Amino acid sequence: MSHITAIEFQENWEIETLKAMCQLTGWQFNENKKNYSCYHAWVGDTPPPPGFTAHEMKEQIGKCSHEIKVPNADYSIGIVEKEGKIHLLYDYWQGGYGLQKALGQSGGILKQNYSIAKTLLECKKQRRRVRLTDSERVGWKQIEIEME
After folding, report:
1. Is the Cα torsion angle 75, 21, 71, 100 positive or negative in sign?
2. Which residue range forms the structural domain that includes residue 20?
3. Which pLDDT value is given to residue 133?
4. What is each CA distance from 92 to 36, 52, 77, in whole angstroms?
5. Sorting pLDDT into bands at 50, 70 and 90, what band is 1?
6. Looking at the domain assignment, is residue 111 inside a domain?
7. With 80 as the cut, is the pLDDT of residue 59 above it?
8. Do strands 77-82 and 28-30 pair parallel, antiparallel, or not at all (unpaired)?
9. Does 138 map to a domain?
10. Are 6 and 87 in contact (CB under 8 A)?
């Protein structure tokens, strides 16, 4: 049974940054893929994600504009564009069969990688020298930016 949730962020998601994040993490950005992997049946025993109605979920579940596929996860993330806003949706039933672990609690790992990608893209626009390295702390990244 499907239990769809959204990964919420304090700013609007951007497609180009999501693509850069996927390139950075080794995740696969499937442009123009119209479906994401989930149970594909809305049973209505949980509330719909913010910005969606139960009726919309029943009619549109599993449909998207683009998809993010994470290695070793059976379910994927659907990128849904609605009313000028981008939503990242996924089925969290049974931990998304590996997806929720890769995303971190409340999508924390995804959000961190998105922020890194956004910083790298902004530095590239400003023609700054940037070096991204793994930190001494496991799972941490370090960004060095040459300001002038």
Report:
1. negative
2. 4-104
3. 76
4. 13, 16, 10
5. very low
6. no
7. yes
8. unpaired
9. no
10. yes
